[in-house]
Structure formats: structure tokens, C-alpha cells
Amino acid sequence: MSRTADILLTALAPAVWGSTYLVTTEALPAGYPVTMAALRALPAGLLLLALTRRPPPIAWLGRIFVLGGLNFALFWALLFVAAYRLPGGVAATLGALQAMMVIVMARGWLGAPIRARAVAAAAAGVSGVALLLIGPEAALDPVGVAAGLGGAASMAAGTVLSRKWQPPVSALGFTAWQLTAGGMILLPLALIVEPPLPPLTGTNVAGLLWLGLIGAAASYALWFRGVARIEPGAVSMLGMMSPVTAVLLGWAALGQSLTLLQGVGALIVLGSVWAGQRANRPAPPAPAKPAARPVLRMEGS
């Protein structure tokens, strides 16, 4: 499959993640963020394990729990803290810093080069997200800012390490391992820090099914497939599709306003994503040097 097709498939994952805010606010009970995260991760992971029938080998358990903690447990927990303590635009802008963090981490852990054009594209994307989401009422809460930065760093580290640690298993199996590990970390935490859930309605169940089956199992399988095939810097830029989708869904489904400035911000984000794919394109291999032609020596010369 071509690199362009891989990019388009991977971009579907953050586009789907953009629906998380709409589903969470409109379909899930409020006040149970860790419980909702556990119910999103663990059933989806167990379902994928049943489908793939490939449990992780014992030698991989340590790495899988590190990845499940970074990509799901820690990331989702910090994401909810940031969402509760900051305006959504500020939280999303802090999350967009993940692209720059990936560039630095990929240099340290994978030896990937730091390209000036890739850094510029990431910076432009952050500014576009800010224009798209931050309003004049935005306020900074220190705990919320720390959670937002920590969540971005957690996802960035999980993305780079998922590229570094590639097990001999399909992307679906790799997703099953990580979702299950993340859910196993989140479940006892939810039982400790949150009260029992009230009886779930049909709408609650539908929301959890969407977030678990589509927003976790299917989308993260596409994401980890892309992580294995595309450069880390290019993959991280695709994550900026999420706030664009969230704003468009809010406008289409909830009747939220969409200003000219937000439109400009969306165009900047899309342009930066395109530029980031070009800037992170691997350099073509150097042409092979022609073999030296042997020198024929005549007898007696």
C-alpha cells in the first residue's frame, strides 16, 4: 500500500476521536471520567483479544503495560483532568503540542532527524488549533495546564515507543494488548476514586459502544498500524485532525457557532498537517554507485 493510502487510513483515527467530546457530553453520565475510560478500554481490549486469539507473551508484558499506561490509562486520566479544569480550546491546544514532543522524543529514542520544516509545520498546527478553539474567555489553571502538558507528553511517548517496540503481531493484536493493559490499570483506579455508576440508560450504552468499538478498538488499530508504517513526526501531525472534527460536529449536531476566525484556524491546521507529511517524508535512498569495470590486462603487457 502506498504511503498516501497509509496516511489517509491513519488520519481516520483522530478524525473519529474528534467525536469523543460530543458523545461524552451528550450520551454519557457526567462525573465518572475514570470509570468511563475503563469501560471504554477494557471491554474493547478483551473483545479484540478474543478475536485475535493472541495473548501477549510473558516477555512482552512489561512493555505492554508501559504502552497501555502511556497511550490509554495516564493519557485519558490527564485528558479528563485538563478538560474539567480548562476551557476546551486551551486543553486541545496543549494537546496539539504532542507533535513537537514526538519530534524530540523520536530523535532521542529512534535516532530520527529533526527537520526544520517539520518543526515549523507543528508550530503552525498549534497556532491553527488555538485560533480554532480558544476564545476570549480562556483562562489558565496551573493544575489544568500541567495535566494538559502531561497528557500530551504521555501520548507522545506512547506513540514513539509503539514504533520502537514492534511485536511480531498484527496491529489489531497490538491494539488488543494495549487496550486490555490500559483498562486493567484504569479499573481499580476507578473503583477507588469514583462512586458506583448509576443504572445506565440505552443512550449511555450506545455512547459506550461507540467509544469502545469505534473510538477505541477500530480507530486505535488504524493508529498503531500507521505508527508502524509512517514516520513518527508525520503520524503525530495527523492527531490535529481531532479538534477540527470536534468543531465541525459541534457546529453540525449541536448548532454551535463557527466564526470566520475559526475557519481560518481550521485551514491552518489542515495546511500544517499536509506540510507535516511532506516535511517528515523519508529521504530517498542514495543511488547505488556503478560497479567499477575490471581492467583487462593483455598477456605480456
UniProtKB/TrEMBL annotation:
Q: Where is it chiefly localized? A: membrane
| Stretches that traverse the bilayer | 32-52, 64-84, 90-110, 117-136, 142-162, 174-193, 205-223, 235-254, 260-276
GO cellular component assignments: membrane
Keywords, A to Z, come to: Membrane, Transmembrane, Transmembrane helix
Instruction: Look up the domain of life of the source.
Output: Bacteria
Q: Which PANTHER family match?
A: EAMA DOMAIN-CONTAINING PROTEIN (PTHR32322:SF2), INNER MEMBRANE TRANSPORTER (PTHR32322)
Q: What is this protein called?
A: Probable blue pigment (Indigoidine) exporter
